[in-house]
Design goal:
Elements (H helix, E strand, L loop, with lengths): L28 H5 L4 H31 L5 H16 L3 H11 L7 H11 L9 H19 L1 H25 L21 H14 L3 H17 L3 H18 L5 H18 L20 H5 L28
Helix pairs in contact: 3-6, 6-7, 6-8, 7-8, 7-10, 8-9, 8-10, 9-10
Keywords: Membrane, Transmembrane, Transmembrane helix
Protein name: Integral membrane protein
Organism: Streptomyces kaempferi
Length: about 325
């Protein structure tokens, strides 16, 4: 038979058979165009991580700020102006006494009084730290947290991380000196423990864990570790405790809803099982019971009874008519 011209060669319309190899141009084309190896994977991973961190820590909060306006920065303004207010009052002797009595927290104080003063102590600046530099960090931490987490969760994280440091210091003082450096001497209980630094560290760490921001996490946690090494004081320990508490809260983020939902379903099922089945359903409205007749109404003649209970009157023109007999 005569062979067609279009069937000659793979490139002239003939389908490649199983014995034919791939086209020369396709062999190793992707491998030659795409750089391979470990350096490329590392650079790609770092790029994706930084892009995701930029989107989660900057882009999304900025979108929320454009959508909500200045109402999304209420906590940040309140925290900043609160620190400025208490700092201005503390410059006078009478004001310093008021600040100490309302927001001064020490480990030597009774626990109920310390818990009562802890929310106010967030706005009392520490004496050994620069106020205006700390206000910038405070405003940025509360602004990002409020835009990304909401007001209620921001306040909860700030208070829990601060309270964790305050309570853990009490445990360390109760342990006493020693314990491989974990215990503290009793004199530490007289050190004034105020300032929003633990809340700021806790908010940044919580955001870094929830938003998967390793750069922010390294800067926050690394700086706290370096501070505790260079200046081993009470504030450094509380900052490390705040970081640890924020990590735990960040890892538990979104996982408490399932147990709560399961517990709610279990309680509803138990309530449905314990509900009596033979008695009347109390959820449906029932008709009021009929009123009982009084003795006077029972002995009265039919004409004197109410119209609803008396026999209907017979018309005069039908009195003499014969009644129909029943079959």
């Amino acid at each position: 038979m005569e062979e067609r011209r279009g069937d000659v060669g793979i490139g002239h319309g003939r389908t490649a058979g199983p014995g034919d190899g791939p086209p020369p141009a396709a062999v190793g084309g992707d491998e030659r165009r795409r750089p391979g190896g470990t350096p490329y994977r590392i650079v790609s991973f770092v790029g994706r991580t930084l892009r995701g961190e930029w989107h989660g820590m900057v882009v999304e909060p900025f979108r929320q700020l454009l959508r909500r306006g200045l109402s999304g920065l209420v906590l940040a303004f309140v925290a900043a102006f609160g620190v400025i207010f208490f700092h201005a009052i503390a410059q006078h002797p009478t004001g310093a006494t008021v600040v100490r009595l309302t927001g001064g927290v020490k480990a030597a104080l009774p626990l109920p009084l310390a818990l009562l003063r802890t929310p106010v102590s967030l706005y009392v600046p520490a004496l050994d730290l620069p106020v205006w530099a700390g206000i910038t960090q405070l405003f940025l931490a509360f602004a990002l947290a409020e835009l990304a987490l909401g007001r209620a969760r921001t306040l909860a994280i700030a208070y829990v991380t601060t309270l964790a440091g305050t309570l853990t210091v009490r445990v360390m003082i109760a342990m006493g000196p020693g314990w491989w450096g974990l215990g503290l001497p009793p004199e530490t209980g007289q050190v004034l423990d105020t300032g929003p630094s633990a809340a700021v560290v806790g908010l940044f760490t919580y955001l870094a864990v929830v938003r998967r921001a390793p750069v922010v996490f390294a800067l926050t946690g690394g700086s706290m570790v370096w501070e505790s090494i260079v200046r081993p004081n009470l504030a450094g320990r509380e900052h490390l405790i705040a970081v640890a508490a924020a990590i735990v809260l960040g890892l538990l983020h979104g996982r408490w809803r399932r147990p709560v939902r399961a517990l709610t379903v279990l309680l509803h099922s138990r309530r449905a099982e314990n509900r009596p089945t033979g008695g009347p359903d109390l959820s449906e409205p029932q008709a009021p019971p009929a009123a009982a007749e009084s003795p006077a109404q029972a002995g009265a003649p039919a004409a004197a009874r109410p119209p609803a209970l008396a026999d209907p009157p017979v018309p005069a023109h039908r009195v003499n008519e014969p009644r129909a007999q029943l079959r």
